[in-house]
Amino acid sequence: QVQLVESGGGLVQPGGSLRLSCAASGSIFSISTMGWYRQAPGKERELVATMTSGGTTNYVDSVKGRFTISRDNAKNTRYLQMNSLKPEDTAVYYCYADMVARDGSSWSRRDYWGQGAQVTVSS
Questions:
Q1: pLDDT tens, the chain, 123 aa long
Q2: Are the C-beta atoms of residues 80 and 58 closer than 8 Å to each other?
Q3: Contact at 8 Å (CB) between 2 and 16?
Q4: Are the C-beta atoms of 33 and 98 separated by less than 8 Å?
């Protein structure tokens, strides 16, 4: 079974740091893009940071200079280091991957989502 497993998250004071991890497991042929989206209460889900297979990164303007996405290709894992956290960063963070994988009997390219990790920034 192909899945994305997230870890990290939690409660942190403003100005603090957290690191999220997302590991892809199962029969995976390739990962085109992988990263995180977030959804705050009453708001739409938005892109936070992504990285392509070639290493190109994309960040939402509000996190540039504070968040950094990195990877461990051998483990099919991406990391999101979040520094200088603000209360407006509070949201559920969802790992996302655009992958070619075998889920069942056939190989196909589709989007996969993690279970979500709560990040709360509050004093």
A1: 899 999 999 999 999 999 999 999 999 999 999 999 999 999 999 999 999 999 999 999 999 999 999 999 999 999 999 999 999 999 999 999 999 999 888 999 999 999 999 999 999
A2: no
A3: no
A4: yes
